[in-house]
Amino acid sequence: MSNKRALSTRSVALTVCFTALYAIFGFMPISPIIGLPGRAITAAAITAPLVGVVLGSYLGMLSTLLGGAIGFFLGVFSPPSFLSGIVTSGVAGALYEGKRGICVFTYFSLLFFFAFYPFVGPVWLYPPLLWFQLIGLLVLASPLQSFAVRNMWKPKTSIRLSLAFFTTSLTSTLAGQIAGSLVFEILAWPVFIADVNVWRLNWQLIAWIYPVERIVIAAAATVIGVALFRVLKSTKLSPWLNLRSGQDSN
């Protein structure tokens, strides 16, 4: 009973800490959101995959949900960014826990509904928008993702650990980006943006912007994640966190 109580207390404490960190990073804009004037992608996008890996899929989603809610009510998170962070942390955590099948299904489902959204989905207006998201799906469903997770569990070299973090951060942040784009479609059409030509222009503008944006986010998450991973290992704090679950299951 005492172990369960300690685990519960630690989980609450860690969730609160990462919730606060996620909310704070939400005040740091890094890129404007095309189609939503005055809104920006924030540094919270960098922390979302790390929250999932460190806390696990469930606590990671809870942490980004609470942190995103704080940022939303304070006006720093848009609805697309709010859901994007939750999906990113959930997918990253699930990947680390070895639940790749669930992640592939989630990614594919989000991509399908986003791509074929009635009238304004990119399949109808500008299919090239989907090129990098499809690459992300192929990576996620391939042995490369499994190899990445194994190298996060038991990294043999710093290079392998960095590549593992980058691959996991990239696929999870792409899942979040698709979720955010789907929310944008649902909220903006036809109430705020009724002209399909405007939608076509938006898709053309971001077709080559969001891949660079997601690569930068994944690279930044990798730098922070590898450093955090090393610190947790050296200080023997990993048994407190989701970092232990992957090792125990291998």
CATH topology: Arp2/3 complex 21 kDa subunit ARPC3
Largest sheet: 2 strands, antiparallel
How would you describe the shape? Answer: globular
The helix/strand order is HEEHHHHHHHHHHH
- Name the CATH class: Mainly Alpha
- The rounded Rg comes to 18 Å
Number of β-strand runs: 2
Tell me the strand order in the biggest sheet. Answer: 1-2
CATH architecture: Orthogonal Bundle
How confident overall, as mean pLDDT? 87
Which structural class do the helices and strands define?
mainly alpha
Distance between the termini: 27 Å
- Number of helical regions: 12
Describe this structure in words.
By secondary structure, the protein is mostly helical. It has a single domain (2-249), classed as Orthogonal Bundle (Arp2/3 complex 21 kDa subunit ARPC3), CATH 1.10.1760. It has twelve helices and two strands, in the order αββααααααααααα. It has helices at 2-25, 44-55, 57-73, 79-96, 100-115, 122-125, 131-141, 143-153, 158-188, 196-206, 209-234, 243-249, and strands at residues 29-32, 40-42. Strands 1-2 form a two-stranded antiparallel sheet. A hairpin with a 7-residue loop joins strand 1 (29-32) and strand 2 (40-42). Helix 3 (57-73) runs antiparallel to helix 4 and helix 7 (131-141) packs across helix 9. It is globular and about 55 Å long. The chain starts with a helix and ends with a helix. Residues 1-6 and 244-250 have low confidence and may be disordered.
